[in-house]
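for the recovery benchmark. tokens below, seq after
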């Protein structure tokens, strides 16, 4: 009874807050079924399958509200107990555990789950489940930076989804392809795919992913400086996530709005939004986004000229990001930490941070992160320039200041024509908020007006010679 009731509620819970709240009321009963199913005695496999069904009924609730760690532990136990049971039910179990592992940034283990799901779907000739397996394999490969493999998986997924008419998952696959194109700097193509995905999400009533796509569009728009449009989409996403009771995605939308306020120079509102996002991430157990928010808080402190506070937040962020294994954000946080350490006079440790950040980001697919790191290195050069000037080594001071100014110029210079960008690529500063954040930190800490850096990378010195 409790499993059947839970399954009926779970089928509607992603897009219906009343069903989600009703599922939350059944959590204790479904937990009881789960614990009973793990017991020994006669019919152990059948009981294990009931335990797995109970966890899968709870999947929408635990995915949207957490705790994510508890969800994963329950799936581990149920899958072990039901290992010899119905292949299609096991395929759904591996799908749920793979998604839980994705959320916790355990990417290699998630791939193993999605491959196990795919194998069982193929054996039982379920093209619907097979298409979903390829979709999630594509998501995992993208997060690993393996873009060619991610595209191939997405194309297989789309073929199967269109064969069986699975419009819901087709929309989600198009969204993943849009993110992939955005990460490759192909923003116009990404926008077209986001628009297609958004149309499908609205057509089939997939409100959860409608909100996610609005957030993705907002991020892309903010990266390109379209701040009013970004704010509209962030606020639309936030309203949807709150309507659905989706606390995990609500936290991401709050973080995005914090990033927007930060870019607009609204420090106190940005800090308040980050605090709310951080509280939700910790409530849900989303360690990866906890680390990302902490890094954003540290960068905000740096942009406000508060180096010591920035160092504290960025060290906290790095502890979490290393724990979950998010290498791209670890590299970016290391760059910001290097800048903050340089601002506080810890120049040797700052230099070490920059070297480690470069090593971490060497293989990342997101060029904007490396370009932001290049700007952050200017903090060390300007700090060393100040030291040299104080000791009377003016030629060396000028050389170091010139090196920092050249970094600023690179960040503001558009790229030449290429097959993907026949009219030339936008400058790093015009296509990446991470680069603009690094530039703002130079202005805040060193008083450098980045708009006054000339075409050869020369900066105008103040009239008083400082």
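predicted aa per position
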């Amino acid at each position: 009874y409790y499993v059947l009731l839970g399954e009926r509620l779970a089928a509607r819970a992603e897009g219906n807050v009343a069903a989600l709240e009703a599922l939350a009321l059944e959590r204790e009963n479904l937990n009881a079924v789960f614990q009973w199913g793990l017991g020994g005695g006669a019919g152990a496999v059948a009981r294990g399958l009931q335990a797995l069904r109970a966890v899968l009924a709870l999947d929408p609730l635990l995915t949207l509200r957490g705790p994510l760690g508890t969800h994963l532990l329950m799936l581990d136990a149920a899958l072990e107990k039901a290992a010899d049971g119905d292949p299609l039910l096991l395929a759904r179990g591996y799908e749920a555990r793979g998604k839980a592992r994705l959320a916790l940034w355990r990417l290699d283990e998630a791939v193993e789950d999605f491959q196990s799901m795919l194998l069982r779907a193929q054996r039982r000739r379920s093209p619907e489940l097979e298409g979903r397996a390829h979709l999630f394999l594509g998501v995992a490969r993208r997060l690993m930076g393996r873009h060619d493999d991610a595209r191939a998986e997405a194309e297989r997924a789309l073929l199967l989804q269109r064969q069986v008419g699975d419009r819901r998952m087709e929309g989600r696959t198009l969204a993943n392809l849009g993110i992939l194109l955005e990460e490759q700097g192909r923003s116009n193509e990404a926008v077209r795919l986001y628009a297609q995905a958004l149309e499908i999400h609205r057509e089939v009533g997939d409100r959860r992913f409608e909100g996610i796509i609005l957030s993705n569009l907002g991020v892309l728009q903010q990266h390109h400086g379209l701040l009013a449009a970004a704010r509209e989409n962030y606020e639309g996403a936030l309203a949807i996530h709150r309507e659905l009771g989706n606390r995990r995605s609500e936290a991401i939308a709050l973080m995005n709005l914090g990033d927007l306020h930060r870019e607009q120079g609204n420090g106190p509102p940005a800090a308040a939004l980050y605090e709310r996002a951080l509280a939700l991430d910790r409530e849900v157990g989303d360690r990866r986004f906890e680390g990302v928010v902490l890094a954003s808080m540290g960068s905000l402190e740096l942009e406000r000229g508060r180096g010591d506070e920035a160092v504290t937040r960025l060290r906290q962020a790095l502890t979490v990001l290393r724990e979950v294994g998010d290498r791209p954000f670890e590299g970016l946080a290391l760059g910001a930490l290097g800048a903050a350490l340089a601002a506080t006079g810890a120049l040797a440790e700052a230099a070490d941070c920059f070297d480690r950040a470069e090593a971490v980001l060497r293989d990342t697919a997101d060029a904007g992160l490396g370009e932001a790191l290049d700007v952050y290195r200017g903090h060390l050069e300007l700090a060393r320039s100040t030291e040299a000037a104080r000791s009377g080594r003016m030629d060396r001071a000028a050389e170091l200041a010139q090196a920092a100014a050249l970094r600023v110029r690179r960040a503001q210079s558009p790229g030449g024509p290429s097959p993907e960008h026949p009219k030339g690529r936008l400058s790093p500063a015009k296509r990446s908020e991470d680069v603009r954040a690094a530039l703002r930190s130079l202005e805040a800490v060193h008083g450098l007006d980045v708009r006054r850096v000339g075409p050869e990378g020369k900066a105008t010195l103040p009239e008083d010679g400082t």
